Fold each of these.
Amino acid sequence: MKINIILKVLFLVLMYNNAYSQPPKFDYGLSTYKKGNCMGCHKWHGDGGPGYGGAALSLRETGLDKEQLITIIECGRPGTNMPFFDKKAYVDDRCFGMKFSDFEGDDKNRPLQAKSFLNKRQIEAVVDFIINDLQGQKVSKDYCLKFFGKPTRSCEGL
Amino acid sequence: MIKYIITTIFALVFSFNTFANTSWDDILNAKKAPQNWLTHHGSLDGHRFSGLDDINKKNVKKLKVAWTAMIGGIEGGGIWDHAGLEGTPIVEDGFMYVTDGWGSVYKFDATKNGKLVWKMNPDTDHDFPGAVTCCGINNRGVALIDNKVVSHTLDGRLIVTNKDSGEIEQEVQLADASIAEVITAAPLVVKNSAITGVAGAEYGIRGWLHSTNLADGSKNWRTYTIPAPDEPGGDTWKQGPEAHSKDAWMHGGGSTWVVGSYDPDLDVIYWGVGNPGPDWDNEYRPGDNLYSNSVLALDADSGKIKWYFQYTPNDPYDFDGVNEQTLVDAKIFGKKTKAVLHADRNGFAYALDRESGKFLWGTPFVKKLDWTAGLDKYTGRPLDYDPNKDVQRYVPSSSAFRAQPEATSCPGNMGGKNWPPTAYDPDRNMYYIPVIESCAMHVNVPQEKEWVAREFWLGGGPKMGPQITGSVTAMDVNSGKVVAKYDMDYPQLGGLVATKGGLVFSSHPDGTIVALDSDNLKELWAFETNTGVNAPPITFEAGGKQYVAILAGLGGAWPKWFVGSTPGLEKVQPGQTLYVFGL
């Protein structure tokens, strides 16, 4: 009887530890990755590839450093579907020394505005997320669970 | 006293109808009961025309909000941060049935200012299908039959709900999200069966139409829209440069995500079929790629294909041919004809003989169309189609291919016209089209990688080009000529309804709902919702009074992929409101 009770208590303690040992951690960078619709093209897994947003580069295979990533997010990549997230981009000459007026009549290369702008703090957070969770890493079950915030069939088989 | 008797009789009849089942005869004769909006397009012929005229050109200026209701299901899932509202409300005897993006069904009592009678939540899996739906979290509505409300869920189920209680009576799993099949279309009820279309061509599904026996949930038939190699049309999928392209047909796309129409006299279902996959690499799949970008005429009982007509063979543009089919008995070139109309993403509107599939006319409804010089007046084939080639270039500067990986076409890949439905006014013999006036760039990326379940199967992608605008365009069905345009700053992304009151109701994607004059498309009334409008309006009568209803809530593919070509639309916020207007 006593052993039975001890076992039950032990089981409950283990269950509790299992459930709460790794509470979901809020990641401002991931949250910004979603808010900025980065996943629309680079996908939830960050590996990019073809899509309705165009052929996006893999953030897992990118060789860009922190400063370069910040520049690309702030300014976008004119001539591609990568939009700019800095509110002042191309209003003044902070991006590649160019302004909107430099693209007049050039529909092919005009910079595209993001669905929502990101501020400096948000851009740095999303860059940290790319460097810490994506760059140089393979898609893992832990990452999948972190992205979706809960178990989902999308994470099965990883 | 007489007024009292009439009111009592009306109340009795109304109260009797409240508990009446929806018979197949009711559906066949939907136009004779214009107080209802009984099927997705109002009637099985797809007209989206109402015989109600209490709201008309003379008084529409007085139209105001009668009641509103908040719809739930706006939360995101998968790769989407919010769901949209694209549904068409169904109305029967004063009760309205509406869906949200995740497939919950709401029954409102329109005689009691929209009091909620019940809500059915099918507990749709959010993340698994939400990670592979190409173009938003959407559900376009329900169908009624007997005492059943028939609906779909994004995770691939057909749901039968008791009309009175809101309890689920039956669930049938039809689509498989593990290979990226999802369902967004409303079902089409034909006799005692529900016809289901599927989405997922952008992930390399093999499209199908499925008929379910509503008595027991069993399969009547499933017809694949992409034939196997030993079936008729199978030889239109040839091997490309990659060895794995010998099985291109298995991932050939051909989705069926917009509900079709039905002709009871011929017992034929007409249903549009979507683009081939991979979308932007037609060198991967030499041949015409039947039955992608086609209309299929199918025997309703067997699902057998009676005839087909293909709009854009071996498509390199993502000119998805899935848009609705409108069945008209109308004068065409002065002769009474049983025809089927269709406004395609490729920018042409078509009239075909619906008994034979014979081409009657095809006319551009967009301002700019440059991917082909026109249509052959006898066959309806694009003039730049080359029957001696397996891989089509059309006007070469307009299509991206391996030796020329970027090109711009007008219209662009979103059309022309997308899923938002047309309306047909039989009194005026006029076809009203919600138009995306666009050009867009195409990028070819050779499909060297083999198909992987739940990975995009595109062979490239679109690239934002010049600014995209829109219009509502009126076309005379007799001649196939454009007779009027209502210009818009943004594309028309919601659809239309035409009424006997001489009105066409329409919307702007940044939130304005408008009433246009059916004769000249002049704007007669406008209302600002201040949210996105991506759903079609309808009109109905409750308690003897005519109303106009529309869902307002930002949805679809546009907010995620295409705002770069419509500056200003990025400011539009998601919403979740059902608006009902009355005089």
Amino acid sequence: MIIYGVAILAFSYIVGQLFGELLGNWLGINANVGGVGFSMILLMILTDWLRKKDLFTLPTQSGIQFWNQMYIPIIVAMAATQNVKLALTSGMITLLVGIIPVIICFAAIPLLAKFIQKSDIETIRT
Amino acid sequence: MEIFYKFLERNSLILAFLIVGLIMYFSSIISEKLTNKKLPSAAIAIILGLILAYFGGIQTDGEKGIADIKIFNGFGTLGGSMFRDFAIISTAFGASLLIMKKTGLLGLISLFLGISLSFIFGVMLAYFYGYRDSISLTTIGAGACTYIVGPVTGAAIGASSDIMALSIAAGVIKAIFVAIITPFIAKSIGLNNPHTAMIFGGMIGTNTGVMAGLAATDEKLVPYGAMTATFYTGLGCLVCPSILFLIVKSII
């Protein structure tokens, strides 16, 4: 059933995000620390386990796949709700602070990427 | 007309589904016909979304782009953090845990490097611009991380509200800039494999920017970038008002 897939995803979401909230609270900050990451790891472990047990039927998978496919449309909706007006009207200093550090960080990415083990490189097959 | 608006207001989430669907469709046509598929349709769709957000902002003077217009309220739900995180977690299905383990340490290093670099250059720019007190400098530097780290840091160390607003604006600009620019520079920084995507997520960190930027570049890289970026804001909220603030204070 499709709802099983959605429910597995929801379970991963709730457990992982809650863990991120608690971790943030424990560190004394008002923010979620790594909730999405924990949820992702949990989902990978769960789906792997179900696959091994032969319980991961096609309809169950499509319950997760649906949201996977909805990701870009959701990001488009997110883009449409950003405070773009504020960004474009708030003056020179914000433009500089918003853009220059990003350019520096972009430039640093290839330097860090050099440390990736050559044998580990797995390019994505499309 | 009144009935029509009331109806759309009540069903705004469904209306958002329809409009986003149309945006995706037009973007794929533009991508194919005008750019010969050189510019991915997702990138065009995201830019169209940002343009809509701008018009929403001028129309209503609100903070949530198009979602501040009543009948487009559904965009706020569809593009809000709940659906966004739910969908992004689903992308982990099919991602490789092995790759994530192998690049885990580099991802962690990139997180600390990314936060420090953004903070340092944010503080330096603010200093050159004439800010001299450590609280304002730290808050603006934190805003160079993400638009959440900025105000959280500012609130923690007692920044004035105009400095907080400035740090939020800087963070929003960062997110928009990353979302737009990533597909164009992906090739030149080697952003074509999951390992580099993890470093990218840690170095850049702003969830909105990283997720939109990777979606516009190559959908398959999304889970890897998201995996590291998800720690960025939390880590930034941890180190900016504490260690980094103390360092700025001791220098000024």
